[in-house]
Amino acid sequence: MKKRPYIICLMMTSVDGKILSAKWGNSPRIKSLLINFEKAHDTFKVGAWIVGRTTMEKDFTKGLKPILKKGHGEKSRLDFIADAKAKSFAIAIDAHAKLGWKKPLMHGDHVITILTEKVPDAYLAHLKDIGVSYIFAGKKEIDLRIALEKLYSLFGIRKLMLEGGGHINGSFLNEGLIDEYHQLILPIADGSIETSTVFEIQPKVKKGGATLLKLKQVKKIANDVVWLKYKIGN
Ligand SMILES: NC(=O)c1ccc[n+]([C@@H]2O[C@H](COP(=O)([O-])OP(=O)(O)OC[C@H]3O[C@@H](n4cnc5c(N)ncnc54)[C@H](OP(=O)(O)O)[C@@H]3O)[C@@H](O)[C@H]2O)c1
User: In testing the pocket of ligand 1, which one of 53, 99, 188, 228 has its CB within 8 Å of the most ligand atoms?
Assistant: First the structure.
């Protein structure tokens, strides 16, 4: 494999490993616990973060539908770097162009979206108009390794925060693409059967058994939150 960014996965969970914080209510106590995620994120000082399509849609673009440009021409399937000088990046994996974008920044970070070649020309035309960068990482399905190699070579991204949800984390884990895992365990018991955990991998694609981790640090931080740090791989 060519060079790729070092991947640090950061997640916040209940004691039973569940990740859907929206289900935990919005009492002041819960809200004060949830703040720990952003605080922890900031301590890494890594200028690039990546999330799955669902997380980007639910938590960031707030359900905005894809915008298609009218009267566009045919668009090549060449990668588009809209801002070569950007220093921080918000990255989405969106194989089927389901995310809507109105501006090229998310929380001040330059947006890069990772697409397959089968997305509509009109979608690409709109992204170009508004200055969202895009890269292609497969014809019909995303090849995560290609995506990561391009983030490294085209944007100079050396370290990347992988921040959920469970399905994108599961895809990275399944491909052996996580180097460090950090888990903030909140003093909450979720207890629901149907909600996602940190790593969700479809049985039909799952490779091998469980992944072994090496514990590097255990810290108790504010409000009874435990911060675990693991290394994965060699
Ligand atoms: N507690 C935490 O720390 C934390 C952090 C982040 C998110 N969350 C929560 O997690 C929830 C979302 O989690 P989720 O597991 O449902 O969704 P997700 O992982 O955010 O996104 C899943 C989607 O990403 C795309 N995807 C995943 N693997 C892919 C691959 N290998 N190739 C191409 N596309 C791939 C697919 O999009 P398509 O369907 O378009 O193909 C898939 O449906 C949200 O409610 C969010 O709030 C919690």
Answer: 53
Residue 44, SS3?
Answer: helix
pLDDT of the residue at 97: 98
Q: The domain 6-232: what is its CATH number?
A: 3.40.430.10
pLDDT beneath 50, residues of the chain: none
For residue 49, what are the contacts with CB-CB under 8 A and spacing of at least 6?
A: 41, 89, 90, 91, 109, 160, 161, 162, 163
Ligand 1 closest atom vs CA 51: 20
- Entry pTM: 0.97
Each domain of the chain, given as residue ranges in start order, spans 6-232
Q: How far is CA 170 from CA 5, 184, 193, 198, in A?
A: 18, 18, 18, 8
